[in-house]
Batch of 3 targets.
Target 1
Amino acid sequence: MQNLLAGLTRGSEVVLYTPLGYGLVEVTRFTPPVPLPRAEAEAAVVVAREQLRMLDIPVPTASQLARALVGGSIETRDGPQHLPGVLPLTGERPLVTTEILVAGAPQVPAPASAASGGSASHPAPR
């Protein structure tokens, strides 16, 4: 929770983890659109959690919480549900990425993609 609030108040990348069992962990990343005052960040988390509770998700995964905050679709028992997000937008909706890793395995940063402002070209293997 401290990592989430720190990222929301600084406007920096947030990394959230959800243990999945069988030695797997869900790693979700997003960068909030703007830094928020602490009270607004805390209120945004409360509202996002309440929206998820109303969808019968009392204990959300990191991915579900991130999408409730910035907006996006989540799977519910009744099918896909689009959430508008509770954080203020200043342009494009932030990208939420989720990957499943083996718990304890080192995390390797994902290569930059053209969509995220990186280069789409990769050096040829030698």
Target 2
Amino acid sequence: MLDYGKLTVALARQDVPLDFLVNVEALNPAENKVTAKMIRLGWALHLNDKETINGVVDTAAVMEPGKPVVMPMRMRVNRVQFFNGPAQDMVALAAAVAGLNPDPTKISLKASPTVETPLGPLAYPNPITIVPLLVVLDDCHWCDPDTAAMLHYLVRRLDRSPILWYVTYAPGLTERDAPVARVLRALRATPSALPLQLKPLTVDDVWVVVRELGRLSAGTSGRRLAGRVHEVTGGNPFYLIELLKTLLARGWVRVHPETGEWIVSEQVTSDTEVGTMPPTVQGAIGQRVARLSDDLHAVLIVIAASGHGCTTHLLSHVHGISRLRAAVLGDALAERYLVCEDQGRYRCAHSIIAAVVLESVRPARRRELHRAIALAMIAADAEGGPPADPGQVAHHAHQGGERGLAYDHAMRACTEARQGGAFEEALGWLDLAALCAAGPDQTGTVDRETARLLEVAGWVVVPPAARRASGGVLFQQDFDLTSG
């Protein structure tokens, strides 16, 4: 609902544009052999076929037969005229011109030109109506070459017509040399183009969506659910809607038959894992991954398996390529929005992408991947590359079947965590070391370190292992909704 009071204040402070530029194209018909001279142009803005404001532009223009003339007309809203009109109509007009009105409105410009003739000034008997047109083209990344060429032709051919072209496309779904990608680059370069890059939804945005769809009325109801859903989906609207639809389809969330409010199903317990990402999202990501070349796919698998991201040193060791080649492949994946580069590390743009990529990797290959990553981290450290994180080396070595390597680095990770005061993390690394210990000597070392850690931390009762919520899973405690 538009707040007319706030908008009126904004108008008084000139926070909303009160003047605007309209390019009017005038044409003297070719069959008329006389050169005309326009000396004045009267105009009126109509909102839903109702006149709101009007004015006169004293712009002289010479119009030769058959040659269009473009006249930039700067129109300024007369404040006295503005506030003398019906308040609601005037504010709605200003909101529509400023792009603030959420309701669909029809704005038209009616022009009445006056031309100079041998008999004196002559005004057109009927005003000329100019109605802007909005053309929406969705998912243009799927355009074939012929369609892309036609789009480019129409936009250039109708450049002076009152048409707003609204073109949407998903970056990363087309190759850089694809015809549609080249056409979109050309369109973005036009002076009148306004590129708009959509950003992910914030936690507050997700909360608004949850409250609106779920008809939640309590003060902070749905806040915790919105935070967890945002963490799972990364604020991607497509992921968000599909996840909420899955919660309803699987019965974890039900609709109250009388109020229509979302309520938590009774079948959800504290140990229930719900909300794994639906097949629609996994299928959409799988299609993007399937179009990759073998080299890009192989690098993406390593990045997904690494968890915390890969440096070019690591990719170079795993694949036996130069660091420059590794950077080229990593950047190509970043251009497709499958990975992101942060402080020299490539990591999957979303945990869901990593899960979909690894789902197609068989256990034998996945085991060798973890082993190669562990060994590459150690080798890169030895060559002066980024220092190897002992915890990461231990994790990948364990997944790769290198028990001795996993034990050594788990003990190192425990020492570092204990020295930093992270006692629970240190205890977790001792759990891994106990799992990988070979022989009574290593087992005894883990036992002694465990006793020492409990004494240093001052724990009488050993704390339970913290549950790590995976990227696409929600738990019962995430649902701060009414139970039913």
Target 3
Amino acid sequence: MQFAHFIWIASAAVGGGGVGWLLDRIVLGRLRRFARRSQSLVDDVLVGALKGILPLWGALIGVRFTLRSFDLPASVADPSARLLLGLTVFSFCVVATRMASAWIQHTTSGLVGGTKTASIMGIVMRA
């Protein structure tokens, strides 16, 4: 792999992350305002779970498309694809954990002695 490939990959990651950040600020910002006005709990949980994850997804998409555009040997392409898949699965697990944690907190907040946190993963993800 040549140095120019690293430059293209880094540029794609930064560019994709920037697009994801803009989507996070603009689209999710509007969805947050809409979710605050609605009576539904589902939209609050979903929008809260997606906060901050769109830049990561944008960067992963940018890197993936950049790697696909190069004619890389299998010794580089396969581990790269596996790493991106692992990061993607991890990010979806983070979103699912945030959703489950928020759902548990919302549903138990009215109970006497309601939970302060839903799981250790929720505590780790907030840090």
